[in-house]
Amino acid sequence: MEKSNDSSEYGFILVGFSDRPKLELVLFIVNFILYSVAVLGNSSIILVCILDTRLHTPMYFFLANLSFLDLCFSTSCIPQMLVNLWGPDKTISYAGCVVQLFSFLSVGSVECILLAVMAYDRYAAVCRPLHYLVIMHPQLCLRLVAVAWGSGLVNAIVMSPLTMTLSRCGRRRINHFLCEMPALIKMACVDARAVEMLAFTFAILIVLLPLTLILVSYGYIAAAVLKIKSAAGRRKAFNTCSSHLTVVSLFYGSIIYMYMQPGNSSSQDQGKFLTLFYNLVTPMLNPLIYTLRNKEVKGALRKVLRRK
């Protein structure tokens, strides 16, 4: 496949929301606030998970990793989007576009798999409570996180070059606010069906397979909870899983709608707002979901704030 000399030399133009100039200022203010909250919230989760020894457990190890991923996910494109929303310059260099696409694909894939790992952790906690620490020993936790990162990197290493080297016949305008794979594929002036089908295959492996594991884990968890006779015990088991289930629903709902459609048939405006949702709104909400529903995290936060 041939790379366009124009795009590699002059970069790309991120159209974003420039067709709605009145909306740009509103979006800048809202996204700046949401991004600031996301950075503060996820950094706080990572900090308390490191500083509070009571949180040195598998569940909070995975939660700290999730917060780190959310930070990377948002930072991969939101600062660039804020720059483009603020001023007339809507350009991004070719190298910047490559880095953005690679980061977006790798981190997004890792998060899909990490959420499945966290579901397995909740299954072990609820269904095998007496053997929980034996099952989820530190070496296994590290291996599971390594598998998640390795899988995400493989996806990015394969799909980023294939996407960027599609011939675009001098086209530089990306009808999106970031260098996202579906938008870049749509710019191609050659038959890109092979790349689209490969992306769809990766989506099955990285999105649907982990989601299936999550659903199976929660099926076993639901069966175990129903066997608990006391209402207090059922409530405790539900609280253990509710935060993770909420995060899974928010993240996977938008991802599946975006990527599990052959040819990416969602409208362009719809795609922009959906990307904004799982790239910014979900990372902003995750710390709030885990903090508001988790007494241990709230206690750890209060303890850290008292130290200051």
UniProtKB/TrEMBL annotation:
Domain annotation G-protein coupled receptors family 1 profile: ranges: 41-290
Keyword tags: Cell membrane, G-protein coupled receptor, Membrane, Olfaction, Receptor, Sensory transduction, Transducer, Transmembrane, Transmembrane helix
Species of origin: Neovison vison (American mink)
PROSITE patterns attached to this UniProt entry: G_PROTEIN_RECEP_F1_1, G_PROTEIN_RECEP_F1_2
GO cellular component: a single term: plasma membrane
Keyword set includes rRNA processing: no
UniProt key word Transmembrane: yes
InterPro entries according to UniProt: GPCR_Rhodpsn, GPCR_Rhodpsn_7TM, Olfact_rcpt
Source organism superkingdom: Eukaryota
Regions crossing the membrane: 25-50, 62-86, 92-120, 140-158, 197-226, 238-260, 272-292
SUPFAM superfamilies per UniProt: Family A G protein-coupled receptor-like
Residues forming coiled coils: none
Topology class, membrane: Multi-pass membrane protein
GO molecular function, one term: G protein-coupled receptor activity
The family this protein is said to belong to: Belongs to the G-protein coupled receptor 1 family.
Name by which UniProt lists this protein: Olfactory receptor
Main subcellular localisation: membrane
Subcellular location(s) per record: Cell membrane
Function description: Putative odorant or sperm cell receptor.
